[in-house]
Inverse folding.
């Protein structure tokens, strides 16, 4: 499955993709992973994972692709800024 998300951009007035932090933390707990193990599995830096989990940064294309490679359902882990 190839996602064309490299061209995705956030602009004022558009939906912003966010991580359902509790859902992702639940997956981490099920697998016995901390932030570093998740970062390695996603193919991103630990600092990126930390910032996403603390809602200081939005997930980038590598983060999103990594979640999908792990076999997680997109809609279980991500939402737009209007969803909970």
């Amino acid at each position: 499955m190839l996602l064309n998300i490299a061209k995705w951009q956030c602009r004022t007035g558009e939906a912003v993709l966010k991580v359902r932090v509790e859902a992702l933390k639940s997956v981490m707990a099920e697998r016995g992973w901390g932030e570093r193990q998740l970062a390695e599995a996603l193919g991103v830096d630990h600092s990126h994972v930390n910032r996403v989990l603390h809602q200081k940064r939005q997930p980038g294309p590598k983060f999103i692709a990594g979640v999908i490679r792990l076999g997680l359902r997109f809609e279980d882990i991500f939402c737009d800024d209007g969803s909970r």
